[in-house]
Amino acid sequence: MDRFATLFGIFAILLWSMSVALTRSLAEALGPFGAAASIYTVSGIMVWMVAGKPTLRGQSPAYLILCGLLFVFYMVAFSLAIGLANSRQQTLELGLVNYLWPSLTLLFAVPLLKIRARWWMWPGLVLAFVGVLWAISGGRGLSVHQLLENVHSNPLAYALAAGAAVSWALYSNLVRLFSKGKGVLPLFLLATGGVLWGLYFSFSSTRLHLDWPAVGELLLMGAITAISYQCWDLAMKKGNATLVAALSYFTPLSSIFIAGVWLNTLPGSSFWPGVGMVVAGSLLCWSASRK
């Protein structure tokens, strides 16, 4: 087992933790549609350069069509949810809604991959959902009134974040069923960029204006996408995959912290119990599914 490969996997987790912060920062500079379209176009090109030319030969239609649609929907929904947030504080809430996907992945794996999960997967799921509801309630406990008020203030963004969590959980399972070989990640990323450019030219009234800080963040986001997937792939093949997978469930914690620092909007102490519940719930689900 290669220790360096394991470290690369941990590095990938830290890189992915920057996605909420950079997506929001670029959305403020370029608008939600322009930022998202630019991010995935640059990411697709960089992943192509790093991973090499993808091949369609031998790939199943189910992988290319079904998994491709789920991948594109997730990326579009996630980036637009973050970009359409009314405030930076709401960005953190929407980021946490998105991080329901680890628990949902294991839930969907029971019927799709026929895994056997122990009974504490269900308390883990409940705990993760309660954590999200706690955070959206403004850290005031489970206040139904405050929860509904916050969601009602931006229903599209919350719906997109929830839809992103569901679609990525489905993708994570179905890609294991249908993918053959290396996959076609660069094509999925470029397809996402194409869809978002279509939305940009159809609905956006914001003119795309790239200044040097935005260019730097855009290149950083593309590099993060390309490098993180390569590091993750190496860790899964040669490193301690079990350890890396367990640590990946702390991504909500690291992501919210990095986003808070980057956006200069660290959440108050009342927000962190919600983050902690999402992490703990995800870890319970993970441990319930281990052989």
What does this structure look like?
It is found in: Cell membrane. This protein is 78% helix and 0% strand. The mean pLDDT is 85. With 291 residues, it is an all-alpha fold. The chain contains 14 helices and no strands.
Short description:
This protein has helices at residues 3-16, 19-30, 32-51, 61-83, 88-98, 101-112, 121-136, 144-153, 155-178, 185-203, 212-238, 241-248, 251-262, 272-289.
- What is the count of helical runs? 14
Structural class: mainly alpha
Strand content: under 5%
Separation, N- and C-terminal Cα atoms? 19 Å
Share of helical residues: over 70%
Number of self-contained structural domains: 1
User: Which regions contain 5 or more consecutive residues with pLDDT less than 50?
Assistant: none
Please give the largest β-sheet: none
Q: Residue-averaged pLDDT, rounded?
A: 85
Task: Summarize the helix and strand pattern as letters.
Answer: HHHHHHHHHHHHHH
Rg estimate, integer Å = 18 Å
Name the overall outline: globular
Give the strand tally.
0
Helices and strands in order, then pairings?
Layout: H1 3-16, H2 19-30, H3 32-51, H4 61-83, H5 88-98, H6 101-112, H7 121-136, H8 144-153, H9 155-178, H10 185-203, H11 212-238, H12 241-248, H13 251-262, H14 272-289
Features:
291 residues, mainly alpha, 14 helices, 0% strand, globular, transmembrane helix, transmembrane, EmrE-like, AA-Vitamin_Transporters
